[in-house]
Design goal:
Length: 466
């Protein structure tokens, strides 16, 4: 039982506290709300306002057997005692919004002008109107939301497994949120004119390190998947060691340790990046890969800072002069229509040598529509480049041959649909066109800052447990 003199909790004082909070005053972490601030990083974003208001307002929560059986906390004006404020519920009870089962109508009585949250998990056969009414949305508010806000009726279509969250200020509806299994959710916010507007917001994300170790008994892919690696993560490991380890001929008994940085939203991993890995081919022979990024690109290096993969040139021409960049909304200089410019243009004189940006294989060499004379190269790490408008090909360049980093593959020209002499250069990564000037590429054979690399490697090794 918490007893507080009512002189300290006059309604005017409480109003001042609430006003202070919404004016941006920060509540000290040393006061009664320290448990709120301690857990605010993991708190459901829809609960925080409701919890704070419930802590500021003098409430008496009934804890008799009848109220325990209800899915709601019952609050009434009779809860106020003339001489003291009683709180019979555990503090943790105040931190959760009401849960509404679809078969249980609301039994909640709320103090005027207080914020509260009602959450509903959608079941088969539920309708938005039925749930809204059970949650306490009155007829006028429901009509305003459904028919006077200009929202598509598809906005209110429900699927089993989704969650609806209603936020009220007193009896007035403030917002409705529809949360599914996506990384985003839909929020309908009430405006000053009483209408509702639709927003698509991203759910909070969590980034964490994930370490896995497993023995190869069958093959790396199947054993990795059994251990919990996604297909994308398996591919990242194989690509990192592509020039050092042949996973196809790996003998049983080898051991792999991997460290991934994962981002999780709504309980799902939405991105994952290999930070470090070590493969023990035998008890005495191991190969390591450590991720390192600088201003020019990113790649994987051994413990000495040497690149595990062939490095790339950032530009296919020496002393580059860029005249047009990657731009999805560029107006075509000849056709005078908005058409994506998927590459980088280098404005150079006729005959300027064009270089392979890494060791590669010629996938195509020939005339290609408006590109004119074109060479397409397949590079390591699922990278492909296209060089267009050539005046001529370099000697020996034809489909199927291999080329070395820095080798001349052709010469600047204006063949095809072109306004003048230039090289049009495109780059694809994993089959998607990307900006060649900003994509992460391992552009150096050794790391440029060994001290920083050493610190990062030490951190990776400590996480791997080696």
């Amino acid at each position: 039982m918490i007893t507080v003199n009512k002189a300290f909790f006059s309604m005017s004082a409480i109003g001042a506290c609430i006003s202070g909070y919404f004016l941006g005053l920060r509540i000290s972490e040393e006061n009664d709300y320290e448990e709120y601030f301690a857990d605010k990083e993991t708190e459901n974003p829809f609960h925080q306002t409701s919890f704070l208001m419930s802590k500021l307002l003098p409430l008496k929560l009934e804890t008799d057997e009848a109220s325990k059986e209800s899915s709601f906390h019952s609050i009434s004006e009779d809860s106020f005692d003339e001489d003291e404020l009683s709180v019979n519920a555990d503090v943790s009870d105040l931190r959760h919004s009401e849960k509404l089962g679809t078969s249980q109508p609301s039994s909640l009585t709320v103090q005027p002008e207080t914020l509260r949250i009602v959450e509903v998990d959608i079941s088969s056969g539920d309708s938005f109107i039925g749930i809204a009414r059970k949650s306490g949305v009155n007829t006028d508010e429901l009509t305003n939301l459904l028919y006077r806000s200009g929202l598509s009726q598809s906005t209110f279509s429900l699927r089993q497994g989704q969650r609806l969250t209603f936020e009220f200020n007193g009896e007035k509806l403030v917002s409705v949120s529809l949360i599914g299994d996506s990384i985003t959710y839909t929020k309908l916010m009430k405006g000053k004119n009483g209408g509702f507007t639709k927003q698509t917001l991203k759910l909070p994300s969590k980034v964490y390190a994930k370490v896995m170790e497993f023995k190869i008994t069958n093959n790396f892919s199947s054993d990795g998947a059994t251990r919990g690696l996604s297909q994308s993560e398996i591919v990242q490991v194989v690509d990192a060691f592509r020039y050092k380890v042949d996973f196809g001929t790996m003998t049983p008994g080898a051991v792999a340790k991997v460290l991934f940085e994962r981002e999780e939203v709504n309980g799902k991993v939405v991105s994952s990046l290999l930070k470090a890995a070590k493969v023990f081919l035998t008890s005495e022979q191991g190969v390591s890969a450590f991720y390192y990024k600088n201003e020019d690109g990113a790649g994987y290096y051994d413990e000495n800072g040497s690149s595990l993969t062939p490095s790339f040139l950032r530009h296919p021409i020496k002393n580059p002069l860029i005249t047009s960049k990657f731009n999805l909304n560029r107006t075509h200089p000849i056709l005078d229509v908005v058409r994506p410019h998927w590459g980088t243009d280098y404005g150079h004189m006729k005959g300027t040598p064009i270089l392979a940006i890494s060791d590669a294989k010629v996938k195509f060499a020939g005339t290609k529509g408006g590109f004119g004379r074109t060479v397409i190269l397949s590079h390591p790490q699922a990278i492909e480049t296209l060089s267009a408008h050539m005046s001529k090909y370099a000697e020996g360049i034809k489909t199927g041959v291999s080329v070395k980093k820095g080798q001349v593959i052709g010469y600047v020209g204006k063949s095809g649909l072109s306004t003048g002499y230039h090289l049009h250069f495109e780059l694809k990564k994993d089959g998607k066109r990307v900006n060649s000037l900003s994509v992460d590429l391992p552009t150096v054979d050794v790391v440029d800052d060994k001290e920083r690399f050493g610190r990062e490697v030490d951190e990776y090794i400590s996480l791997l447990g080696q």
